[in-house]
Fold:
Amino acid sequence: MANGLPGPTTRFFNGILPENPVYRQILGMCPVLAVTNTMAGAITMAGATAFVLICANVITSLLRNALKPHLRILVFTLTIASFVTIADRTLAAFLPLMSARLGPYIPLIIVNCIIICRAEVCASKQGVGTAFFDAAGTGLGFLLALASISLVREVLGNGTVLSGWAGPGGLGLRVLPESFPTWNLLLLPPGAFFTLGVLMGLVNWYSLARKRRVAQGNLFTVGAEAARAEVQA
Amino acid sequence: MSTLLPLAAIELSITNVMLLIVSTALINNFVLHYFVGICPFIGVSKRLDTAAGMGAAVTFVMTVAAILTKTVTYFVTGNMNVTGGQPGVLTTMIAGRALDLSFLNYVVYILVIAGAVQFVEMYVRKFFPPLYKAFGVFLPLITTNCAILFATLMIMMQNMGFAETVIYSIAAGIGFTIAIAIMAGLREELDFADVPEPLRGPAITLIVAGILALAFLGFAGVQGPSQAEPADANAPAPAHVETPEADAAA
Amino acid sequence: MVGYIRQAWLVLGLALLFGVALAGVDAALKPRILENARVARIAAAQEVVPGGAAVTEVPALPNVLRVDDAQGRLMGWAVEGSGQGYADTIRVLFGLTPDGQALTGLVVLYNQETPGLGNKITEYEWRKQFLGQPTDAELVPVTRHSGQPREIDAVTGATISSQAVCTIINQQTLEPTPQGLAPSRLIATLADLAEQAQISPDAPAPGGRAEPLPVTPDDVSAYTGSTPQKKE
Structure:
């Protein structure tokens, strides 16, 4: 890139893992904790967020040359709020149960820091293609984070996956036997904090261990490609 | 209930107001039950005095924003999207029929909040310099604080009256301040703890927050008189005459 | 002024553009959203009144739905009520016989009760206790059942949620008077309406249109968040 900013491919893959919005940048904590007690809710939420993220990024990128610096945030907010309303109405029309369950958390996408962060960092400086892939990568990273947290919470808390979407009577696919004493606590608010805290610790532990191995020059066990990405990050 | 402005959907008795405050500030604590305002909760809550300043700023802006958005909703846009919602009073009067503008609510709310924060900042800086010194630096951060938007959304979705709106937003702000202040106190101590390396930073904060949320779960037992006496098996009819409104408090 | 416009033309233009776009989206999706809410209400009303086919609104009683069978005979009423539960408001819909003297069913429309404890109130096994309960006195949640009518087994560990549901129903069916609890005005109104329907069974509810609407059991279970029930 001429201006030293990463290109579309780098942006896309950075968004997924190396700069994962949840585990690495600690952004958008509100939906991460609030809607992850079922996988169905978490995936819907991530989908809605990704939709808004992509639309807002593309629009911002299109307008980037006309933006006045002091009105920038206002334009971002206006764009995001409009697309959130579209997402909210669409969910209410086509997934009414999910819309009722997520309730006020769908409109809260407006203040999700991930979106305004991507608009600031990438879309207001780079072209439409890059902005699109950046948003898609970040959205995918957000989806991965939400899905991983909700997977832990739903499996241990309820013994199922995808309840509300799959399985007999929409009760989910049972992955743990009925006799398993489900950890109801994980479905409750404290469980959200515990799960995210522990998962974040695991991610940190993994990257610390990898960094240590890289530092020892033991590149063969890691793979040169991954190591290079790590050093860049 | 006033004929001019709806004050509240519930009867404003002392019991109901107390219940509303307790349930908003403690039981359904914004941070520990609804998870809104987590960013400053993790980011700012490192020292007790900054946390208290942030809490005060959020409470103040939340109340102002809640009143403003309630006014806009009631008079202009309406909240026809929710059960029991009604169209805006003024737009109905002007258009001569029920006009549903509630699709504009989200856009209007966030713009009102952003504007309110700007004005509050200017006003406080000019007229209350000591107050500005105490929490002025947090004001710009508050626009993207989801707690404010969440409060206005809850007020819209639950169709609260004006008096209820004020009580709810102040109580929510108090709850936010309590949570963030307790957290700051804990984190000041956490600095001296020997935390395993991977858990340092946000991870241990989240786990501590989980324990705090667990403690706050206990408040859910604090509720109206409904569960006072588990009915005795030998007494088929209950002796007490119930007061229906006491349990109906939202 | 000109300076302002030069500064803000983009914001103003965007606001206009987005406003129009949102109005368009809203206009396009609104019929569907309203239809969803209607189907959900009707499905729930059909579940709480056995044999119900046609569901109509009752003018003057916003929280009541009239339920008729396929031949247009009045089968009962579905009444919506809400109250504070353990975590948040609970909204329920319960069915009443035409004369309002007994309950015919109950579904929980909205709850945020503790998963695994309080939210057992949504399960059919618990809800079926309300079937046939008389409405002339309070329903009481008990921990030890003594075989008396009007006793509801409280969900273990969730007395508050169980009490909340009973209280919601009691509030709709009973009214405090100086002499104690008496049947509420709602019950009296419903009984009157039922009598009128008896006299002229062909006349539909005033202002309401009988519109039978086929709804699959899946819709009901999805709406009430419970397993499809097996009716004996």
